[in-house]
Amino acid sequence: MGAFSKYTDNDLIHLISEGNVDAFAEVYERYWSKLYNAAHKRLRNDALCEEVVQDVFLKYWEKRNTLIFSIGLSNYLHTAIKYSVIDYYRKELLKDKYLQVNRLVEAADNSNEEHIYLMDLRRLVEKVIDTLPAKCKTVYQLSRIENKNNKEIASLLNISEKTVEGHLTNALKLLKISLADFSMLLLVFLIK
C-alpha cells in the first residue's frame, strides 16, 4: 500500500495540481487497469489500449494546473478514454479514405477519362500537401506515405507526440476541406 492509498480522489487532485508526482502515481495505480479495460471494450487491441491510456495520463499530467474536475476524477478519466477512442477511430477513418483514393489511383485502368480524373485528384492532393507549412508537410508525409507512427515521427523530428498529432490534424482537416468538392465527382465516377 502506497503512502497515498488512503487519500480521496479530491485530495489527490489537489496534490497533483501542485506537481506531486507520488500523488499522480497513486492515481495511475488506482485507475490504470479500469481505464485499460474501458478502452479494450472498444478497441480490442492490447498495444493500442496501452497507448490510449498512457496518452490520457500524459495529458492529465500536462494539464494538471488548469483542469477543473466538476464531474470527479473517475468520470473525467473515463470520459477522456472515450474521446481518445473516438479520436482514434476518426483518424483511422480519414486514413482509410486517403488509402482508398490512393488505391483507386493505382488500380485505375488506362481509359482516358478515368486516368485524367484520377491524375487530377492526385495533383489536387499533392497541391494541398504542398501548401502545408514545412514541418506539417514533413509530418504528414512520414505518417501517410512512409507509414511511421507518431512516436517514430516525434523521435525523428525532435518534437513531442502531441505536436505530431497537431500537425496531422491540421493536414487532414485541410485535405478534407479541399477534397470536399472533389468527393462529389468521385461519387459520380464510382457510380458510372
UniProtKB/TrEMBL annotation:
Domain RNA polymerase sigma-70 region: residue ranges: 28-92
CDD domains, per the entry: Sigma70_r4
Matches recorded under InterPro entries: RNA_pol_sigma-70-like, RNA_pol_sigma-70_dom, RNA_pol_sigma70_bacteroid, RNA_pol_sigma70_r2, RNA_pol_sigma70_r4_t2, RNA_pol_sigma_r2, RNA_pol_sigma_r3/r4-like, Tscrpt_reg_LuxR_C
Name of the protein in its database record: RNA polymerase sigma-70 factor
One Pfam family from the record: Sigma70_r4_2
RNA polymerase sigma factor 70 region 4 type domain boundaries: 123-175
A GO biological process held by the record: DNA-templated transcription initiation
GO molecular function, one term: DNA binding
The entry's keywords: Sigma factor, Transcription, Transcription regulation
Native source organism of the sequence: Pedobacter psychrotolerans
Family assignment from sequence similarity: Belongs to the sigma-70 factor family. ECF subfamily.
